[in-house]
Amino acid sequence: MKDLSILIAGRAGDGIDKSSLIIGEILAQLGYCIYIYRDYPSIIRGGHTFSIIRCSGNKIAAHEDMIDVLLALNQDSIDLHKSRLSGKSLVIYDSSTVKLDIGIGIPIGEIIKEANALDLMRNSCIVGAMCKSIGIEKNILEKIFRENISKELDLNLKVAFLGFDRAEEVIKIEKLDQKILPIVTGNEAIGRGLIKGGMKTYIAYPMTPVSGVLHYLARVSGEFSLNVIHPENEIAVMLMAMGFSYAGARVAVGTSGGGFCLMTEGLSFSGMAELPVVVLLGQRPGPSTGLPTYTGQTELNFALAAGQGEFTRLVVAPGDSEEAYYWSALSMKLAWKYQIPAIILCDKTLNEGTYSFDIDLAGKINGPEPLLWSKLGEYKRYQNTKNGISALAFPSDKGAVVKINSYEHDEAGITTEDKDLTVAMQDKRLRKAGYLLEELEQHETVKVYGKKDAPTALFCWGSNKGVCVEAGEKLGLRVVQPMVFSPFPLKQFKEALKGVKKIICVENNATGQLADFVKFHGINVDDKVLKYDGRPFTPEELEEQLEKRRC
């Protein structure tokens, strides 16, 4: 068996997320590529939560509807997911709490008492039983536990081995002759990319789905000499970031739509004062609080238009872990070269999804470095140059008076209301966009997958990349994925569309924001497949929708 989908489910607080990561690590040891989807309510304990761990011999970035193995820690786990089972699916369940006549029942409650273990360790027991049932050796189970469990390791291992011994082998999973790839969440890939891009400070108020970036960077802050700060609200986050940027520290902030609303005045300050900052914007369904722990692609328009006035910005939307790493690093470098805000659009599917990560696929980060003051002559913070980029100096630089201003200003940063100076400085700031666009043409800003000469093309952006690539390859469609939206690389985009006669947009929103965006650039979309219930597309679901359209 070279493809396998495992669903583990229970109550919020049962350790489902940790269990799914351990299962993913175990399967990765056999040479498989991994993708993990997490589904949980916005409550701490009691609600139903589950994860789907999918492994394949090929790179994947989507989960499937149907599953091969169900690990059920309570009755809801059976009742809510029985529609995902086929006649060949294996069910492993806690016979202490679940009533079922099929599958493998493990008396987990009895085992916990026998081992004098904590109730929370029920997940370790069912993971152990799973390993036996699909033919994974006990030494691999032990290796991954030792690498991933820091508290009560011996007791967790004891419980897992007791579950292993009570189960029986039903499925024999193959070991693949492929390199073992590490698995990372999208949030971790973004964090690593920001560090690669030279970030020294990360500031955020926790907000799903990007809270994982804050947690990850706090954990590794000592290793990389990072400042990781959690202020009282998002207004403070953005204004504090402006201070670090002024002082010369590469800085990023993280938030979701509600927090980004509070940051928009500070975003405009960044545009006027030419203070570089990277904003990680994790989308979720809205408006307002919406579904705080679910996914959506609802803020493309918001990212493109946020803030008062007109200013150059970089807006990118990576689609998987490698792209998240690459574009996070490059966004940091470009923000500092052009002294602009950069926005990285992502969503719960990308942020909290777990992927096999191949650094070779991510590509080398050969981004630019900022222009620094030569320390000769009088320093002008906003010197009006041909490309709009002024040399940077920082308060610690001897001989430089570094004045920044949120008002319109002259080259020295002194407030002005002169009409000619106003036009000259606004032209200076906007002029950067053309040079940034030229530089972006050196990078792969639009990707094409599937049958690359097919007359029907799927347009997708962000985390829909994975599911669209699978569907496109199966149905013989071209898949076109833009990753940069401002400034938009229209030349590369049109090149990717040569020979296309029919265009279908696939988006996780109700209005088709990508379809409207490309229409603004003169490209008409023929059809849209939209999903906005907070859940991502699965390959089966998207293929069904496309087949209805006779693709």
Outline of the structure:
The protein is α/β, with parallel strands linked by helices. The chain is built from 19 helices and 20 strands. Strand 10, helix 10 (257-273) and strand 11 (277-283) form a beta-alpha-beta unit.
Oligomer: single chain
CATH topology of the largest domain: Rossmann fold
Strand order of the largest sheet: 6-5-4-1-3-2-14-7
Strand count, sense and barrel status of the largest sheet are:
8 strands, mixed
Spans of at least 5 consecutive residues with low confidence? none
Overall form: globular
Q: Please identify, by name, the CATH architecture of the largest domain.
A: 3-Layer(aba) Sandwich
The CATH homology group name of the largest domain: Thiamin diphosphate (ThDP)-binding fold, Pyr/PP domains
Count of the separate structural domains: 4
Contiguous helical run count: 19
State the end-to-end distance. 30 Å
| Helix content range | 25-40%
How much of the sequence is in beta strands?
A: 15-25%
**Structural class of the secondary structure composition?**
alpha/beta
- The radius of gyration is 25 Å
The pLDDT mean sits at 96
